[in-house]
Each structure stands twice: as C-alpha cells, then as structure tokens.
Amino acid sequence: MAGLPQPTPDSEKRKVGKVARLPRVIELTGLKRSSIYYRMNPHSRYYDPTFPQCFSLSTSENGAVGWDEERVCAWVAARVARRK
Asked: Sorted alphabetically, which InterPro entries does this protein's record hold (predicted)?
C-alpha cells in the first residue's frame, strides 16, 4: 500500500518478545487499523513518533508485519499515565 510506513530496517534489529499482529494491536490500543498506520506515518497529521513501529515478518515487500507487544503495551501505559 502506497504511503504506509515501511517496516523497521534491519539496522535496527533487537530482541523482540511476543509479536503482535494487527488484530492484537487493535485490541491493545483500541485504535482502528487506519489510526494505527496514521500514527506511524511521518507525513500524517496524526503522526506520533512515540508509537511503536512495525517490523517485517517476511522477505516480500508487501508481506506480513508485526509489532513488539511489550512496546505497544508500554505505549498504552504511557498514554494512561499522561492522563493522571
């Protein structure tokens, strides 16, 4: 899909815990698919540099992506903490 953020480059490899696919990220954040991708897109007015970036789970350009579930949960916790 044109205009969507690309998965994290190989140069940013690190250990990842449980991999969350899009339905799980939707469940954890309460955001819809489009809102998640808007938050990851630097060209979007809804861009959030603190939102966890996805990473590729396959070798193809349009293959499956996932998120580090721990980072997604930490992002949600930080949002909740800001409200208190």
From this structure: AlpA, Prophage_regulatory_activator
Q: Which residue matches tokens 């449980």?
A: 18
Alpha-helical (H) ranges within the chain are: 22-29, 33-40, 69-83
- Return the DSSP state at 6: P
* CA proximity to 76, closest of 37, 5, 26: 26
Helix, strand or coil for residue 64?
coil
Nearest-angstrom CA–CA distance, 53 and 20: 12
Coil, helix or strand at residue 38? helix
Spatial CA neighbour of 5 closest among 59, 43, 48, 32 = 43
pLDDT of 1 over the 50 cut = no
**Domain residue ranges in the chain:** 18-83
CA-CA distance, 67 to 24, in Å (whole number)?
A: 9
